Amino acid sequence: MHCSICHHSCMDGIMLLEKQICPSCEQKLVCIKAEDQSYFYYVWRIKQLWLN
Ligand SMILES: [Zn+2]
Q1: Please, which of 22, 41, 47, 50 could form a disulfide with 10 given CB 3.0 to 4.6 Å?
Q2: By residue range, what is the domain housing residue 35?
Q3: Domain assignment present for 31
């Protein structure tokens, strides 16, 4: 399986609304702060996932 966000292969990712998310991306999503530089990237990536 491949992570829907970072595209790395992962064995033990979680399924989030039918998308595979690796543990490190899941952690990022849980912990990320709005002032984090990658915050908007993640928000944007997730929007893309469910729009496509
Ligand atoms: Zn990932």
Answers
A1: 22
A2: 14-51
A3: yes
Q: What pTM was estimated for this model as a whole?
A: 0.67
Q: Is the pLDDT of residue 52 over 80?
A: no
27 C-alpha vs ligand 1 centroid, how far in Å? 9
Closest by alpha carbon to 6, among 31, 28, 25? 25
Mean pLDDT throughout 4-30?
86
From ligand 1's centre to the CA of 7, what distance in Å?
6
Tally of domains within the chain: 1
